[in-house]
Amino acid sequence: MLKLIQNEWMKLWHQKATWVMLGILAVIIIGAAGLNKYYDEVDSRDWRIVEQENVEMYQGMLAEEQNASNTYWQNELTISEYRLAQDVAPPNGMTVASFMNFSVQLISIVTLFTVIVAASIVSSEFSTGTIKMLLTRPASRAKILTSKLLTTFIYGLFMIAVNFALTWVIALILFNGNTGTLLEVVNGQVQEVNVLNNLIELSSLSAGNFIMSVLFAFLLGSVFRSSALAIGLTMFLSFMGGVIIMFISRYAFAKYIWLTHTDLTQYARDGHHMIDGVTMPFSISVLIVYAVVFLAISYLSFTKRDVTA
């Protein structure tokens, strides 16, 4: 199995598209950092005056908002009052911690790149005719498909590691001189933001969309042997899935559709799902069931169908 994975890994990096995707990721990170640095405005005023103005603004917003949506303004008011009372200065401009949050957002870009690999890693063997040579090896078809699937996930994890590492290095270079303390309200209490814990939590919750998108693209690529169909349909569902679920959320069957549960970040910081009565254990259980179904169809299609033609 290890030799099969090594072979798939080498084939993957012999493709120009793989290097292009890595370059695009680097350009996005460097470009975003450069823009933030260029447009980063440092307020020369005393931060206490600014926070006092913020307190007055938030109080005004709360006076206007007489519904549940005022929770955001209440939290902002609580933080500003805490800063003034405890003499805790806010960040003055972009900091390493605040820019690192950008790396979590980029997981969606990494997911897109991994989907491209998942969709083409099987279908490309048929389009180029190399599937005949591949199947002459003593390894079973199941092992061959497993090596391709594992290689796809290894590539995705590698890109995520590059994303976090490069973002951190660039943030240290450009924003390490900016000081201040990020605060947040958790269960009604003001506390300093733990950047590392936030990154781990949000990254872990992003795994739902990452894994299911890759498995779905892998399924389509294995069954229909068309990378274009796999990439297009997976991306359509990824970007439009939220809209689709919003329209059908009134129906009971919506909670049993895998698209409803891919965005596990809804549960961050004790959050709740968009559909009432849905919990994180239930969401994870639904995703596991669909993941097993996707894998079963992929393996049955690859191992049972005539793939020598």
TrEMBL record:
Keyword Cytoplasm applies: no
Keyword Membrane: yes
Keywords: Membrane, Transmembrane, Transmembrane helix
Gene Ontology cellular component list: plasma membrane
One Pfam family hit: ABC2_membrane_2
Superkingdom to which the source organism belongs: Bacteria
GO molecular function, one term: ABC-type transporter activity
TM segment ranges: 20-39, 102-128, 149-175, 205-224, 236-258, 278-302
The protein's name in its UniProt record: ABC transporter permease
Organism: Metasolibacillus meyeri
